[in-house]
Design goal:
alpha/beta, seven-stranded mixed beta sheet, six-stranded mixed beta sheet
Length: 542
């Protein structure tokens, strides 16, 4: 399967697809898949544009709206992750992924899918230490602070990706993993970007959580963007992956020691084991004479001229299901289960067991990702807004997307945006569907074992609104007293069109002092119970 990799897209979809068409014509071949490593800028209209974290003078509607409205259709299946310049409100409607336009799929906060048998994982956003341990507390309209924090990577997504077992063929990120420059031509990189030197010396160039993921997941390929340059590296993995099943730790360690003894006895008669290697490639942004696109030929299941098969990953769905109770929508720090949990006995390894995988596959009749895209807001009209850069437009309110509603109902998980709205005393909006003519689409084929309680709201009859269920959400949340921190670690790139943020070197959490307000909960809002709630409460320093 021929796969095109794009660095930072920055909304230039027409230019990217034109480039792919030229490659196909010159090489007399067909590209089956396009992967984009962030800064996709899926802005549907001027309201979406206001949620993008860039200086006002650089706000540009670009060309995505044409693909959203149906004026243009993506000529190749396109999968992307989020970066730090996005229509954050639109992407937040799809926390577990979904179609942003026909044939253009977003992976969500983090996600794993299979295309023709090629397993593709990815994580959206960039790393900032002061937000890493927080929950997904943001919702539109955003403040100056949440407009930026909404795209910062959170620990839950990293934790979930670490539970993956088996082979991952491709991993997508926007940030670079910390220290990746040590495995490539560092001198050449510094000649192109000399101002990287200070961040390299201080360990601030890249993301530490991504470095951990690189060592844990060990994908065959890792593609990134963000720093606006092409850079390749080969990362060897001397150790094998950690045990993948709950309860496998003891058996793995015993078999490991037996293997070492056997090697010691037989000595040089055993051939050396091949070392697993991750091929890392970062690409530039979409501009003339820049290295923003790379085409690779990756072995896959034969397609014989047919469209690629596009499926959910069963293991990833099981991980989402089993870690649903770990979702937090609070602004204060919280901690996830670990081996050193003291007196608390709680599961910390969520790699699915055989029973969990069997239960999931029995529930879903098909893992094929449904083509259920629906327009939920009007698209940008260039004739109506010919002078839009001088228009005064406000941010949009929060919307719920029917794709997320269907997915959460089928899998039995919560939509973080719903939880954040409820936690802040907001009424849940109805599932938005734009007043446009749409053809009937596929739906997720699932055998619902238990009826969904819809008594908490009165949704439209065509698309039931799923409110979080089977747990109680604490609506009397303490008001955080932490002053929002501004992202001031910015690499001063020579390009003038945007800022590129660098990662902070630490993810250490400090305790937060909080002053709880008088308890209050909005009328007619269903309260949801969260298990083990005391685990997630922040403790004050003595």
């Amino acid at each position: 399967m021929k796969i095109a990799i794009e660095g930072c897209a920055h909304g230039e979809l027409e230019r990217i697809y034109d480039t792919i068409a030229c490659i196909e014509k010159e090489s007399n071949t067909k590209i089956d898949l396009l992967l984009c490593c962030g800064d996709f800028q899926s802005t549907r209209n001027l309201e979406d544009l206001q949620t993008m974290a860039v200086p006002k003078k650089y706000l540009d509607i670009c060309t995505f709206y044409k693909y959203y409205s149906g004026e243009c259709v993506a000529p190749v299946l396109t999968i992307f992750i989020g970066g730090n310049h996005e229509a954050s409100n639109y992407l937040q409607e799809l926390p577990y992924g979904g179609w942003v336009a026909p044939n253009i799929y977003y992976l969500g906060y983090a996600g794993v899918v299979n295309v023709n048998g090629v397993r593709i994982a990815g994580i959206s956003g960039i790393f900032k230490g002061h937000d890493f341990l927080r929950g997904h507390h943001e919702f539109p309209p955003y403040t100056e602070s949440t407009c930026r924090s909404v795209y910062h990577v959170r620990q839950l997504e990293v934790f979930r990706l670490k539970q993956l077992s088996g082979k991952v063929d491709i991993f997508l990120s926007h940030d670079w993993p910390t220290g990746i420059y040590e495995y490539g031509n560092k001198a050449q990189l510094l000649r192109k970007k000399p101002y990287f030197a200070a961040d390299m010396e201080s360990g601030q160039l890249g993301s530490r959580p991504l470095e951990e993921l690189l060592k844990a997941v060990q994908p065959t390929y890792w593609f990134a963007a963000h720093l606006h340059c092409k850079f390749a590296a080969l990362v060897p993995h001397n150790g094998s992956k950690a045990p993948t099943k709950v309860g496998d730790c003891a058996s793995s360690s015993s078999s490991s020691s037996e293997s070492e003894d056997e090697e010691g006895t037989r000595g040089s008669r055993l051939p050396p084991k091949p070392v697993a290697v991750t091929k890392f490639l970062a690409l530039d942004k979409c501009l003339p004479r820049r290295a923003f696109l790379q085409v690779l030929d990756i072995p896959s299941e034969a397609i014989a001229g047919n469209p690629p098969t596009f499926e959910y990953d069963a293991e990833w769905l099981a991980i989402l299901q089993s870690t649903n109770h770990l979702i937090s929508v609070k602004e204060n720090y919280y901690y996830l289960p670990g081996k050193k949990a003291g007196a608390i006995t709680e599961r910390f390894n969520f790699t699915p067991t055989e029973e969990e995988l069997s239960s999931l596959t029995a529930k879903f009749q098909s893992l094929k990702i449904p083509e259920n895209f629906q327009r939920t807001v009007p698209a940008f009209d260039p004739q109506e807004h010919s002078n839009y850069k001088h228009s005064v437009v406000g941010q949009p309110k929060a919307h719920l997307n029917p794709q997320s509603n269907t997915f959460c109902a089928a899998l039995g998980v919560d939509d973080p945006l719903c939880l954040a709205l409820l936690a802040n005393g907001k009424d849940l909006p109805a599932v938005a569907i734009a007043d446009v003519e749409q053809k009937p689409e596929e739906t997720i084929q699932v055998q619902v074992e238990e009826p969904i309680d819809e008594s908490a709201s009165s949704p439209p009859p065509t698309e039931p609104l799923v409110t979080p269920s089977k747990r109680k959400l604490n609506l009397s949340l303490p008001a955080p007293t932490v002053t929002a921190e501004k992202d001031d670690n910015v690499i001063d790139l020579p390009e003038e069109d945007e800022e590129v943020e660098t990662a902070e070197p630490t993810i250490e959490a400090e305790a937060v002092e909080e002053t709880p307000p008088a308890p209050s909960s909005p009328p007619s809002v269903k309260k949801l119970k969260r298990r083990n709630q005391n685990i997630y409460q922040a403790e004050d320093d003595d």
